TrEMBL record:
<dbReference type="GO" id="GO:0006874">
    <property type="term" value="P:intracellular calcium ion homeostasis"/>
</dbReference>
<feature type="transmembrane region" description="Helical">
    <location>
        <begin position="966"/>
        <end position="989"/>
    </location>
</feature>
<feature type="transmembrane region" description="Helical">
    <location>
        <begin position="232"/>
        <end position="253"/>
    </location>
</feature>
<feature type="transmembrane region" description="Helical">
    <location>
        <begin position="450"/>
        <end position="469"/>
    </location>
</feature>
<protein>
    <recommendedName>
        <fullName>Polyamine-transporting ATPase 13A3</fullName>
        <ecNumber>7.6.2.16</ecNumber>
    </recommendedName>
</protein>
<keyword id="KW-0460">Magnesium</keyword>
<keyword id="KW-0597">Phosphoprotein</keyword>
<feature type="transmembrane region" description="Helical">
    <location>
        <begin position="27"/>
        <end position="49"/>
    </location>
</feature>
<keyword id="KW-0472">Membrane</keyword>
<dbReference type="InterPro" id="IPR008250">
    <property type="entry name" value="ATPase_P-typ_transduc_dom_A_sf"/>
</dbReference>
<keyword id="KW-1278">Translocase</keyword>
<dbReference type="GO" id="GO:0046872">
    <property type="term" value="F:metal ion binding"/>
</dbReference>
<dbReference type="Pfam" id="PF00690">
    <property type="entry name" value="Cation_ATPase_N"/>
</dbReference>
<dbReference type="InterPro" id="IPR047821">
    <property type="entry name" value="P5B-type_ATPase"/>
</dbReference>
<dbReference type="GO" id="GO:0005524">
    <property type="term" value="F:ATP binding"/>
</dbReference>
<keyword id="KW-0067">ATP-binding</keyword>
<feature type="domain" description="P5B-type ATPase N-terminal">
    <location>
        <begin position="13"/>
        <end position="150"/>
    </location>
</feature>
Length: 1227
């Protein structure tokens, strides 16, 4: 039983895998070796392509804890197999371990994350490591991550740093002192070198990997076969094409590796200073850093070589490498719970939650701030591929395969062709044996039929359309790093947009302020920069509560903070490093108004103001900063006016949050109403608050205080109203998408009502549509999770609001077509918190909400990714358009992610637009649709080419004849390659249409189109082949045959006689059947090319594709010329025999009728195919394939949907795991 065990690693994570243990088996290895020799190495290739077969063929099952090889299988929909060899890490070199502790070890150990107590750590951790004699740890490496055997879990697990299960208190108490040299050496042994290595494979390695592709192996087989058959010319053409394809592929793969290597290698090795336990500073290479090291951040900044948490000082960091935002971010030291008044020792450190205190690998520290000569220190928490940058690089190095129906269907179609080839293969062998053909000829001809049916030029033909589309996208400023995604973009039926910087302008303009005096709102004021307000607490808050800093003399920081600071016209000054080091009490940053703003004289009546103005200069020093946190939705500062004894606390943030932290008596009664009025108009509102701090709070105490102590009991001061204008092109682009039946969704980090307002302004939500806000609350105090439904236009903070008139509830319309279901009358809106609760507690409701969810506000980056996944789960093809700031995960996860930012973060996005405008979205979809239709056209054409040629050869095999080498060459090179590479050049149609292209090749209309053309072509070829035998002049051809008139016959026979004297026709190429089949089939290739070259509605008409038109005309003229007016030299080369002129006219008539029938049938299939199929299948009710369509059908007849206003949906407590829920109407 133990041997059959199956374990799971990375449980619940994106890269979850099943793991099986195996041991090498010698007799199996011997059998496989014999098989490899017998199959001429083909078995080895097969085992190279299939890791699962390779392991199972050479190994036997074993327990995971004792195995030599592990077989891994991903648990996602792709179920991909990988294998890895078990290695041993020797732990003999450990100077700090006593023999006594060694004796206490167990036989099989493990690795855990670093334990809290450094003194105990050596004994505790070492006692659990796997150890045979001598001490060894078992591990394997997969996708650049080491997995060690963990004896406690009885499973393999990757080694964690200080980013999991370590409390904030212990970071200060147990990790802030640094490591001993012995402990550092031991950890280095386990964690390895701190570097993100992107090895650029040698050209030789890449070449072998590329050449061993199953397709190139098939091409090699074809080329060898053709060479034995003396068909050198086409073999040479295929070899040249393959070489060009391999070289271009190697160039692009190697270029990507080099780009990634350069991006990672920059600053990968730097010298860093680390603190040791005895307070000595040691200088080491960054590659030697391990979790637990205390790194000293240099004054002039550095590029972070690892992830580390700040425990001392402040840093200004450029995080554009990770977030796409080039705005500098201020990082402060991690709050020390043991020093705080309110202890929070139980809080665990997490790089995501505490990102404002974490310096991430690859980000640039621009400046550091410190006090009293103290060093700026950070504890290393993650190294190498475990860092945030390492994870990004891993996701690029090992991307998930692209799952697209077209590619799955293409393989299925190829299998069908292989089956057809199999029939031809058997027929050829039987026919040849019956006709007593030599064995060598039988083998060559029967294998030849396989290479005819499965065309080696197919992949080159399929990629042509994508390459052309990529080139056209580049012309309109859209760059693509994943060309296969272009086809998938043709299927997009839903696009998610970020709001700020994508739908709206990047920056915010200050619209005005609305101050509060005596708990009442004053009238809105437009100008903040005036003498009256200069010394007010409101302006003081605007002047100090920000994260701005001067970098090389230029004020930089968050654009919102910049706009606010510029609006008041103040000046920011920063102390130099020397001043900060000299004086304990020097403020790191000072702000003061410009001289012209200060009043020249004080009003005599105001005694308080006179006292307040005693200092000659009015300056405010910023003592401590609590940076903005998206989780808390606020930021605050502690500041002191020069000459004041007490310090002030200022806070700004989301109005709802700020109001909740203020004294209720200071918040105006009409606060919610005023806020709602602004947000409904699409304004972004920020609230300000202030309070005087107690005099007992000294400068030193403030440096270690928790923000919770400061951020409460504040006085509400008023609102700052910012305007975020819509981009000019936004409404028009969204209208185009709606007309094309493409759903649009807004995903933003902004306020809910602002987002709804912007959605209405840009046309995402039409004026008559209703918006239902889903407010989900998690389980609390024994109560189950619930969702409250409000209608946005009637949303009031009061719980006793009057019931909404039932007529306001949207009426459901019964639609004839499922496509029309997208034109609905209601939309759901929710925030990130509600979205998370719904995903966790209401799994059955989530798909229904995905069907009509339009606005998702206050969404964290990981929630954006979850939303994309949720939409994909109901079978939407999802596009995502964002400015790259916090959309990396979502851009990567979407079927088509397009970044409007050209920063390094766009490395995560398959597409990057040069112009920061959403007009790139319809352009990308249009090009995607054109590329997809091109792929279909090319695939259908290549399938027909295979079948036409296959049937031609099969007919000729029946009379022991074949097509001549130059006939094959003319068809394969002059006709097929020219047509394939020019028919792909049709540009995209100029506008998006409501109709969508089919997603797969295996669709009724498409199969009917291919099958009907196959039948037509086979019919007309057979007609020509059998009709020529009925002609009065027909005889079995021989060099003296005279089927032409006398004058031509003399010329023809003499030339033929001369020709045959030099080279006898041993293969029976020259005959009337061959000539007839050659001419008819040559025209058939061109006929189907024209029939399949579809234009509108996805591509420009084929007559606008000039290269294609010219190529087809030249080929038509040439074939007509050699058919109606023979040229002796051409006839000799093509091995065509002379036939009477009357038969030439007959062949022309066959071809014309064939063309007419083919084009009429294809047009009919296009026009009525779908209707006929729907009618034929009408007798049985067809269930839609897409889940969202099926759901839409269900919801049409659901009387409880959409939820009524003022109702609540509760999750059932007993069956929480399956997410069932019930609707309770609250009266």
């Amino acid at each position: 039983m133990d041997k059959e065990e199956r374990k799971t690693i990375n449980q619940g994570q994106e890269d979850e895998m099943e793991i099986y243990g195996y041991n090498l088996c010698r007799w199996k290895l011997a059998v496989v070796s014999l098989g490899v020799v017998c199959t001429g190495g083909f078995l080895l290739l097969l085992l190279y392509w299939m890791p699962e077969w390779r392991v199972k063929a050479t190994c036997i099952r074993a327990a995971v804890r004792d195995c030599e090889v592990v077989l891994l299988r991903t648990t996602d929909e792709f179920r991909m197999w990988f294998c890895a060899k078990i290695r041993f890490l020797s732990l003999e070199t450990r100077p700090f371990l006593s023999p006594k502790s060694m004796a206490n070890k167990v036989s099989n150990g493990h690795t855990v994350h670093l334990t809290e107590n450094l003194a105990e750590e050596n004994r505790h951790e070492m006692s659990k490591y796997s150890q045979t004699q001598p001490q060894q740890i078992r591990y394997f490496t997969h996708h650049s991550v080491k997995y060690f055997w963990n004896d406690t879990l009885h499973n393999f697990d990757f080694l964690k740093g200080l980013d999991e299960g370590v409390s904030c208190t212990s970071i200060y108490e147990k990790h802030s002192a640094g490591l001993t040299k012995g402990m550092h050496a031991y950890r280095k042994l386990l964690y390895g070198v701190n570097e993100i290595t992107v090895k650029v494979p040698s050209v030789c390695k890449l070449l072998i990997k590329e050449v061993l592709n199953p397709f190139y192996i098939f091409q090699l087989f074809s080329v060898i076969l053709w060479s034995t058959d003396e068909y050198y010319y086409y073999a040479l053409a295929i070899v040249i094409m393959s070489i060009v394809s391999i070289v271009s592929s190697l160039y692009s793969i190697r270029k990507q590796y080099i780009m990634l290597h350069d991006m990672v290698a920059a600053h990968s090795t730097v010298r860093v200073s680390v603190c040791r336990v005895n307070e000595e500073i040691e200088e080491i290479f960054s590659t030697d850093l391990v979790p637990g090291d205390v790194m000293v951040i240099p004054l002039n900044g550095t590029v972070m070589p690892c992830d580390a948490v700040l425990i001392n000082g402040t840093c200004i960091v450029n995080e554009s490498m990770l977030t796409g935002e080039s705005v500098p971010v201020t990082k402060t030291n991690l709050p020390n719970p043991s020093v705080d008044i309110k202890g929070m020792g139980d809080e665990f450190y997490s790089p995501e939650i505490h990102k404002r205190h974490t310096l991430f690998c690859g980000t640039t520290v621009i400046q550091t701030r410190f006090y009293t000569g103290e060093l700026v220190k950070a504890v290393v928490v993650r190294t190498g591929f475990s860092t945030s940058k390492g994870q990004l690089v891993r996701s690029i190095l090992y991307p998930k395969p692209t799952d697209f129906k077209l590619y799955r269907d293409a393989y299925l179609f190829l299998l069908c062709l292989v089956a057809v080839a199999g029939i031809g293969f058997i027929y050829t062998i039987i026919n040849s044996i019956l006709n007593k053909v030599e064995i060598g000829v039988i083998i060559i001809e029967s294998l030849d039929i396989i290479t005819i049916t499965v065309p080696p030029a197919l992949p080159a033909a399929m990629t042509a359309g994508i390459v052309y589309a990529q080139r056209r996208l580049k012309k309109i400023g859209i760059f693509c790093i994943s060309p296969q995604r272009i086809n998938i973009c043709g299927q997009l039926n839903l696009v998610c947009f970020d709001k700020t910087g994508t739908l709206t302008e990047d920056g915010l303009d200050l619209w005005g302020i609305q101050r509060v005096e005596n708990t009442r709102f004053l009238l809105p004021e437009e100008n903040v920069c005036n003498e009256v307000l200069v010394k007010s607490q409101f302006v003081a808050c605007m002047a100090t509560c920000h994260s701005l800093t001067k970098i090389e003399g230029v004020l930089s920081g968050d654009p919102l903070d910049l706009k606010m600071f510029e609006a008041i016209g103040w000046i920011l000054e920063e102390a130099t490093e020397e001043e900060t080091a000299l004086h304990n009490r020097i403020m790191p940053t000072v702000v003061r108004p410009a001289k012209q703003l200060l009043p020249s004289s004080t009003p005599a009546g105001n005694q308080e103001m006179e006292l307040f103005e005693l200092p000659a200069i009015y300056e405010i020093g910023i003592v401590r900063q609590f940076p903005f946190s998206s989780a808390l939705q606020r930021m605050s500062v502690v500041a002191r006016v020069l000459g004041d004894k007490k310090m002030d606390a200022y806070m700004k943030g989301a109005p709802e949050v700020i109001a909740s932290l203020c004294k209720p008596e200071t918040v105006p009664v009409d606060f919610e109403k005023v806020l709602e009025d602004y947000t409904k108009q699409g304004f972004r509102v920020i609230a300000l608050a202030h309070r005087k701090l107690e005099s007992k709070l000294t400068w030193h105490k403030v440096q270690n205080i928790s923000r919770d102590v400061i951020e409460n009991n504040m006085d509400f001061m008023g609102l700052i109203v910012m305007q975020n204008k819509l981009k000019q092109e936004t409404p028009a682009v969204l209208e185009d998408l709606h007309k094309a039946n493409i759903r649009t969704v807004m995903v933003t980090g902004d306020n809910m009502l602002t987002a709804v307002s912007v959605a209405r302004d840009c046309g995402m939500i039409l004026p008559q549509d209703k918006v239902i806000i889903a407010e989900a609350l998690p389980p609390k105090d024994g109560k189950v999770a619930k969702i409250n439904w409000h209608y946005a236009d009637t949303l009031t903070p009061c719980s006793n609001s009057s019931a909404i008139d039932s007529e306001a509830i949207p009426i459901k319309l019964v639609h004839d077509s499922l496509e029309d279901l997208q034109v609905t009358r209601y939309h759901f809106a929710m925030n990130g918190k509600s979205f998370s609760v719904i995903l966790e507690h209401f799994q059955d409701l989530a798909p229904k909400l995905m069907l009509h969810g339009t606005v998702f506000a206050r969404m964290a980056p990981d929630q954006k990714t979850q939303l994309i996944e949720a939409l994909q789960n109901v079978d939407y093809f999802v596009g995502m358009c964002g400015d790259g700031a916090n959309d990396c995960g979502a851009l990567k996860r979407a079927h088509g992610g397009i970044s409007l930012s050209e920063l390094e973060a766009s490395v995560a996005s398959p597409f990057t637009s040069k112009t920061p405008s959403i007009s790139c979205v319809p352009n990308l979809i249009r090009e995607g649709r054109a590329a997809l239709m091109t792929s279909f056209c090319v695939f259908k054409f290549m399938a027909l080419y295979s079948i036409i040629q296959y049937f031609s050869v099969t007919l000729l095999y029946s009379i022991l004849s074949n097509l001549g080498d130059f006939q094959f060459l003319f068809i394969d090179l002059a006709i097929i390659l020219v047509v394939v590479f020019t028919m792909s050049l049709n540009p995209a149609w100029k506008e998006l249409v409501a109709q969508r292209p089919p997603s797969g090749l295996i669709s009724g209309a498409l199969l009917f189109s291919v099958l009907s053309q196959i039948i037509i072509c086979i019919g007309f070829q057979s007609l020509g082949f059998f009709w020529v035998k009925q002609q009065p002049w027909y005889e079995v051809w021989h060099p003296q045959s005279d089927a032409c008139n006398t004058t031509r016959s003399l010329y023809w026979n003499s030339s033929s006689h001369l020709y045959n004297e030099t080279e006898l026709d041993t293969r029976n190429i020259q005959n009337y059947e061959n000539t007839t089949v050659f001419f008819i089939s040559s025209f058939q290739y061109l006929i189907v090319a024209i029939a399949f070259s579809k234009g509108k509605p996805f591509r420009q008409p084929c007559y606008k594709n000039y290269f294609f038109v010219v190529s087809v005309i030249i080929l038509y003229v040439f074939i007509l010329l050699i058919m109606l007016h023979p040229v002796a030299s051409i006839d000799q080369v093509l091995q065509i025999v002379c036939v009477p002129y009357q038969w030439r006219i007959t062949m022309l008539m066959i071809v014309l009728v064939n063309a007419l029938v083919s084009i009429m049938v294809e047009e009919s299939v296009d026009r009525w195919g779908k209707c006929c199929l729907s009618w034929a299948l009408g007798c049985r009710k067809k269930v839609p394939k897409a889940k969202y369509m099926y759901l839409a059908q269900e919801l049409l007849v659901d009387p409880e949907w959409p939820p009524k206003p003022q109702t609540t949906t509760e999750a059932k407590a007993l069956v929480k795991e399956n997410g069932s829920c019930q609707i309770i109407t609250i009266t």
